[in-house]
Amino acid sequence: MPGPLDGIGLARQVLERWSAVKVVLTSGFAGSKFADLVDARGVAVCLISKPYRVEELAKVLRQALDS
Questions:
Q1: Residues 6+ apart with CB under 8 A from 32
Q2: How far apart are CA 51 and CA 53, in angstroms?
Q3: How far apart are CA 5 and CA 63, in angstroms?
Q4: How far is CA 57 from each of CA 21, 24, 30, 46, rounded to the nearest angstrom?
Q5: What pLDDT digit, counting tens, does each position of 31-53 carry?
Q6: Where do the H-state alpha helices sit in the chain?
Q7: pLDDT at site 28
Q8: Which residues contact 22 (CB under 8 A, 6 or more apart)?
Q9: Residue in 54, 29, 32 with CA at minimum distance from that of residue 45
């Protein structure tokens, strides 16, 4: 993302304003620090590593929506 705000920062801001929003983050880095991110309610934010297949994305999106 361009600018000073990264995906984690954006996710935190969104969750502060709209706590019911489901968050899925993507990362191209192995062992990403995103894996430990939790929102204010203690619910894990879903992570998918790049590159990913459509089927993998669908699975993670379903997991996020069902959480």
A1: 47, 49
A2: 7
A3: 26
A4: 17, 9, 17, 11
A5: 555 555 555 555 557 778 889 99
A6: 7-17, 54-66
A7: 77
A8: 46, 64, 65, 67
A9: 32
